[in-house]
Amino acid sequence: MTIRSAAAAALWAALPAVALAQQPPAQYSQVQGNRAGSPTPPPVLTVERTPAPGVTPASAVVRTDPPQAPRILPGLPPPDAQPAPAPQPLPAPKAAPKVVPAAAPVEVPAKPAPVVVETPPLPTITVRVEDCPAPCGPDECAWGRFEWLYWAGSGQGTPPLVTVSPPGTPRAAAGVLGQPTTITQFGGNRRNNDFRDGFRFTGGWWSNGDRTRGVEADFFFLSRSREAAAASSDGSVVLARPYFDAAAAAPAAELVSYPGEVAGSVAAEATSRVIGGGISRLHNLCCDPCGRVDLLLGVRYLHVGDTVSATENVTATGDGARVPAGTAYSVNDRFATSNDFYGGVIGLTGERRKGAFFYGGRASVALGGVVQTTTIDGSTVIGGVAQSGGLLARPANIGTYRTTAFAVVPEFGARVGFQVTGAARVYGAYNFIYLSSVARAGDQIDPAASAFPDRTTDFWLQGVSAGLELRF
């Protein structure tokens, strides 16, 4: 059913009430009876409803009495019109959506703040992985070491070279060895056995990628050791140079200062110098990531040189001198030795690393020959005229003497150090070197000056060192 049909049906149902409501009150009352004084009775209106079977009335016919032509009320369909279709019930209006009142917000309790527990900081433990790259030690192919040395060597023995005696000492006993009044001023003991500074330089490289074959060279030197004494007098103090008088077969002394005879000065000096070096081929014997042991084969050089000298400058002040009074003269003696060792060396060198620390050592022995050269020189200058020979260097022993002897040079060193960076290390070390045969200058002095004594002895060096090693 359409909306239009539904509206017509609703209008039909309400029509009686509408028709009655539209009649004027007077006419409506006439239906009930005649109004007094009305000549003609009003027509009676009858409203008939003719409903269709089963259908709500769709039209109404209004009749009058007396009958009149049917009059169709406005808004209604004509009588012969087809009955309107039965009205269909309107669909129930959709129920308005229920408004659910908003629920009151539920207050959710907030999460509790985290509890901060103060705990003491744990100690930091630094674990250093051992710097032990495989297979045979550090990855660098070359290295260099610079060492400061503080070494001492065995001193050289020297005979007494300068003596003094108190004033009033008889001339025959003045400065003579063995006399109770004689005091040795210089000599009579070992000289040049003090500690001295020095430096050593070492460099090497591995010749193959496995670092099992390499070459290493080193050179070291010690500063010159020097001991000296000097004295002078105007004649009030007795100064002398002792010697052995071969003709008298007794000790004697040459006066440098004696009351009434001579006045002068005397100076004596003893020096020593040591240098060395070598080059070796390294062959690895065994190794692991943290250590290695290598065989070294090479050559070794060692030099030990000494000098001993004495010089006097005298002026005769009386007739007792060996020259006329007023005459000046000087006497010079000098003894020098040079020992040069050349030999082949064989030994072992090794190192072990533990974290940032390392320790190592070297032990070797060199076998070869030592060339020993001794030079003895002396002179006397009187009145500007020089003569050969002094007091202890006489024509009988003056000259240069050279000999070659077999010698052995054992060497030992140990060191311990710390890895500062990947390429730099510092270390301290102890070293010992021994030379089995050397000629020392002091040993070549013969108090009788009758011949070249050709004496030999041994020599050693030992001391500590501090170094820096760089790897490339």
Automatic annotation (TrEMBL):
Residues 24-96 are annotated as: Disordered. InterPro entries: BBP7. It comes from the Bacteria. Residues 75-94 have a biased composition (Pro residues). Residues 28-37 have a biased composition (Polar residues). Keywords: Signal. The keyword Signal applies. Residues 1-21 form the signal peptide. It holds the Pfam family BBP7. This is Outer membrane protein beta-barrel domain-containing protein. It comes from Urbifossiella limnaea.
